[in-house]
Amino acid sequence: MMSKKIIKKDFLTYEKLLYVKLTNPISEDEILKKSFEELGLKDDFSYELKYFQDKSFTHVFLCKYEDILDVDYVIPEPLLFEVYFRNDTNSENLALLFKKKYIVLVEYLGCEFQNCKVMPLNTYSKIYDEKLKNTYKNTISIDDTQNLSSFDKFNSNIFYQKLLKKCDRVKINFANKAKINHLKSFSFKILLAFTCGILLALVYPLYLYTQKSFYEKEKIKYENLIKNQDDILEQAKINQKQNQEVEKLQEKNEQKIDLLQKFYANTLCYKDFYNFLKVLNSHQSYIEALYIKNNDFIIKLNKDYDFYDDFKKYHFVLKSKEINDEKITLVFEKSLENLENIFTRLSKREFILTLIMAFVFGFFIIYMSIFEYFEKQMKLSKDELFILQAKYEQKQELISDFKDEKLQSFDNEISLEESKDYQSVLKNIEKNLTKVRFLQIQSHESQDQYFTYYDLRLSFNGDFYFLMQFLQELDPYIKVKNLELVKYENELKITLNLIFTLV
C-alpha cells in the first residue's frame, strides 16, 4: 500500500498538472504564494491554479494556460473518483489511469483522496495486478486499451462526463489569478493613483499653459506677418511649388524608412548577448545548447545554477523552466525590474494608505509648483497679443487673399537608394569563414518597390572565440536575426540567420 507521506519541497507530474499538498488549511490569499514556494517555481502569470480543502489538508493543482484544452477536464481526476467511491466509507480503493507511456495510481480511503504516484507502463505485470487485487477492495481502470489489467474498465470520455454531473458535494475553488493581467497588480494601482493625482493637479495649470502657448504662437505669428507683409504674395507662390516637391520626397523617404524598420525588427542586440554570456561565465555554467530567437534566450543544461539574481541585474527575467529527462531548459526574456513583490507584502490597510499618499503627493507637487507661474504668463501673453492683432488688422486691408505657406525644410543629403553589390557582400562573408568546417550557406531574397531584402542562413563548426570575432567584423547594416549554439563533439555547431539590405 502506498505511504501517506506529506509532499513538501517536491511535486510529481500528473497529466501536465503540478500537485502539492499543504499540511494545514490556509486562507485563499496564502495558497498562491505558498504553492509556488513549495514547488520552487516562479510566478510568471502562466499558471491556472485550483485547490480544494478537507479537514486536515489543502490540495493544490497547477496547470499552464497553454496546456488547457477543455475547461471541464482541467478539474483534477482525483476529485471525480471521490464521487465514484462515495458509497465505500472505510475500504481502501484504487483508480488506475492508463496513459501513453505510464500509469497513474490514485489511492483513496473510502471516498477521500489520499495520494497518487506514477509508474512506467511496461512494468505493469500479472503479478503486480494480483498484488493490487489483494491490497485494495475496489479497483477501476481508465482507458486501458491494451487490456493489461483485470479490473473494471471505463472510457474516460464517457465515464468522466457522468461523474462530473454527480459532483454535487465536491467544492472546487479558483484562485483569483488572471492570465498576465497587469491591470489588477498592486504596482499598477499604485502608479495609477499617483498618475491620477498628477493629472488632477495639472487640469487648471494645463489650461493656463495652453492659453499662454496659444497667445505666444499668435504673438509670433503676427510679428512675422507685420515684418513680411510687403513680399508675402510673391513668396507664397514660390513656397507652394517647392512644398509640393518636398512633400513627395519626404513621403517616399518615410515609406523607405518604415520598410527598413520592419525588416530589422527583433534583431540581436550584441550588448545583451555579451551580458548574457558574462553571467554564464561568472558561474562557470556548463551548457548543452544556446538558442536566441526573437530576443528570447534559451539554454539547455544538465544541472541548475544559482545565477538567476545575476541575470536580473542585467534585466533578464526567467520566462519558463522545463525539466525533461533530467535536463533543464531555461527561457529568459529581456524585461524591466518588477516591483510587484514589494507591494504584495503590504497589508490591505497599508496598501490603501499608499494609494492615498501617492495621489496627494502627485497632486500637490504639480499644483503648488506651476500654478502661479502659468497664470502670470498667460495674462502677459494675452495683453501682447491684443496689441499685435490691432496692428495686423490695419495692414491686412492692403493684402490679397493669398494664404501664407512657409517653406518646408528637407535634408538633401539623405539617400536611401541601393548602392552596394550583393556578390561583394557575400564574398566578404565567405572570406571571413575560410577557417571553419562544414560550412553551409543558404540564401533567400525578397523585393518590393524600393529594396531587395536578403536572408542568409549560415551553418558551420567552430569555436566561441571565432564567433565573437566574426560578429565584430560584420558591416553595421548586417544584423543577426537568430542564433543557435549546440555542442557537437569537441566543437560548437553554430547556426546564424543574417538579414540585410544593400542601403
Structure characterization notes:
By secondary structure, this protein is an alpha+beta fold. 41% of the residues lie in helices and 26% in strands. Strands 13-14-12-11-17-18-16-15 form an 8-stranded antiparallel β-sheet. Helix 5 (186-228) packs parallel to helix 10 (348-396). It is extended, with a radius of gyration of 35 Å. The N and C termini lie far apart (73 Å). The model is unreliable at 1-15, 69-75 and 169-180 (pLDDT under 50).
What is the element string, with H for helices and E for strands? EEHEEHEEEHEEHEHHHEEHEEHHHEEHEE
Q: Tell me, what's the shape?
A: extended
Oligomer: single chain
Provide the helix percentage: 40-55%
Tell how many strands the DSSP assignment holds.
18
Distance between the termini: 73 Å
Can you give me a brief rundown of this structure?
With 503 residues, the chain is an alpha+beta fold. It has helices at residues 28-39, 77-84, 126-135, 156-165, 186-228, 232-263, 270-282, 308-313, 340-344, 348-396, 422-431, 464-472, and strands at 12-14, 17-22, 47-53, 58-64, 92-98, 102-109, 112-120, 138-142, 152-154, 173-174, 287-293, 296-301, 316-324, 327-334, 437-447, 452-462, 479-488, 491-501.
